[in-house]
Prior knowledge:
seven-stranded antiparallel sheet; Metal Binding Protein, Guanine Nucleotide Exchange Factor, Chain A; mainly beta
Amino acid sequence: xxxxxxxxxxxxxxxxxxxxxxxxxxxxxxxxxxxxxxxQQDVHMEFLTxxxxxxxxxxxxxxHWTVTVxxxxxxxxxxxxxxxxxxxxxxxxxxLTFTWREMDAWYEEAEEIFGHPRSPYHRVDVRRSDRHVxxxxxxxxxxxTTNALFLFETGIRTRYYIPQxxxxxxxxxxxxxxxxxxYKGFASYWSVTINGNVYEDIVWAYEDPFPEASPIxxxxxxxxxxxxxxxDGVLEDK
Length: 238
């Protein structure tokens, strides 16, 4: 079961131009993606309408509300746990949360946050390395450097960020794909074309990363699991 603990941060949620929840008494449910829960006293319940939806998930049993502000609605976008499958540390009695993507914006203190809340136990460390890194796709060396940035992130395999001057950029084509990481920022993607084969979205970069990941700005990383990466001559296990 996920751990539930108090958070010292003020958290707000905006929907259709209105702040619908604002609290300094938050609960944080820790899991693969942490979730903030608000005490109902700090939620503008006049914007919430209870629905008949109830469901069971891996954590427990939920009931739901629809959020409506100025004729815009997010169906079943607020929910609370009425019971848990197993014993859970902490309590969520009287607390509810919102489906992250259904809301327009989330804030911690005065700053907007993206993706999902950050876990206080999740680290991102970037270290410059002089180890030899070589990226090979379909037998072609696409990148080779002794000036990579190694990104060590809790629960995720090491990623290697390589300066563009050490990459065959002529083989790369930017795509429209974009993703968000709460710890690093917004990622842009490239595909690689080799021998007439297109390997889609296997390269990414944080062109304007969050301050915590600022050293990787502009450097490109390759999808370890989908190509061959050699570090000091040793092929990494996919």
